[in-house]
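## Example record

The block below lists the input lines for one assembly entry, exactly as stored, with component labels intact.
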Amino acid sequence: DAGVTQSPTHLIKTRGQQVTLRCSPKSGHDTVSWYQQALGQGPQFIFQYYEEEERQRGNFPDRFSGHQYPNYSSELNVNALLLGDSALYLCASSLVGPGETQYFGPGTRLLVL
Amino acid sequence: DQQVKQNSPSLSVQEGRISILNCDYTNSMFDYFLWYKKYPAEGPTFLISISSIKDKNEDGRFTVFLNKSAKHLSLHIVPSQPGDSAVYFCAASDRNTGTASKLTFGTGTRLQVTL
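Predicted structure tokens for the full assembly:
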């Protein structure tokens, strides 16, 4: 049973560019959440997708957008990259419903130069 | 505004002894708490959780205690093993919002279990 997978594992971009990160949820899960983990910090919630719609959003600008496909996989897009966007981006999947445990992928490490 | 705080950035414990990791929160709406363990180059791995209706939950060597009046929780690992060396994150959620609860994390405590 495959867990949560993310691609790519590492990425280097320059300021102003755009990036797309991908996530495949754990088998049977229908909800995907994205988190940003800066160096030395805990993960911070970006947004969550269920039934192909954004359901909740954290304190992130509109430059951060996402998508969920009918097979529950998801993408995180970041436009107009800033140096401060350099971080580990984590995808977590779960079943829909409060209190459902979220399972994390290994993350995509993004470096913006 | 740090709603979940882990005030000890690091902790060193001898193998076989008890490890106690602490976490404080400020948001009284939080009603579900989780601990995750993270190794380098891996995503956080779920360890144990506790609902606000309980004050203790055990799973093998791991026990989580919740003191709602103090807005404090702790994770006890007994006995500690070298493989427990990792960064531990405390997370909290309000299960009354949203389809699946968004998690608010602390900044983590790096546990080192020495031989």
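The radius of gyration of chain A is 13 Å. Chain A touches chain B at residues 4, 31, 33, 35, 40-45, 48, 50, 55-56, 58, 90, 92, 94-107 (CB under 8 Å).
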